[in-house]
């Protein structure tokens, strides 16, 4: 099917956001961006991608101060980027790249506050993927090779990091249903079933 929408996927750790996003992109015939945003940001900035990988989707406490001091303006390019910590530089670069890509073509973005970045884009669908803790812990052990004794702690820590990142840069609460168009419990569905739900939602929107 042809798709006119850009889709953002926010996800609890271990809920399958990357797999579902990729499968959805394949079905819709549109581009998929997850870790690819790190590579694009590194290419634009000249940084080694490994530097950005270490701070991806992690907030600092410096950005609001920098904004208040006029070191950066969302609408006027990237002035004084060197004055910002690497975390904030990466967010700014990804913010710019997400907006540019969404203006050029329909695509899928995973994480990186993409729903907030594209809040003024009328052709954007925001999805939140979640599942119960036991399912996500089991999946993390099986797919990430995490020590079973530490898996639950790892999942909770990752969720907390994502929630803090989202709250810091967007001012909104991560995972609140009102911030999304569609929330899906992936723990009781297959990847293909999740993709079917999302594509059916898109098809119904396009009929309106």
Number of strands: 5
Which regions contain 5 or more consecutive residues with pLDDT less than 50? 65-79
Q: Main sheet, how many strands, which sense, barrel?
A: 5 strands, parallel
The level of helicity is 40-55%
The best one-word shape is globular
Query: Secondary-structure element order, as H and E?
Result: EHEHHHHEHEHHEH
Helices, by number, come to: 9
Distance between the termini: 16 Å
Gyration radius, rounded: 17 Å
- Strand arrangement within the widest β-sheet reads 2-3-1-4-5
Average pLDDT level: 87
Content-based structural category: alpha/beta
List the keywords:
single chain; 208 residues; alpha/beta; 5-stranded parallel β-sheet; 9 helices; 5 strands; 52% helix; globular
What does this structure look like?
Helices cover 52% and strands 12% of the residues. It has 208 residues and is α/β, with parallel strands linked by helices. It has a five-stranded parallel β-sheet with strand order 2-3-1-4-5, sandwiched between helices.
Secondary structure blueprint with pairings:
Elements: E1 6-11, H1 17-28, E2 31-33, H2 36-45, H3 49-53, H4 63-68, H5 86-104, E3 107-110, H6 114-117, E4 124-130, H7 133-144, H8 148-170, E5 182-185, H9 191-207
Short description:
By secondary structure, this protein is α/β, with parallel strands linked by helices. Helices cover 52% and strands 12% of the residues. The longest helix has 23 residues, at 148-170.
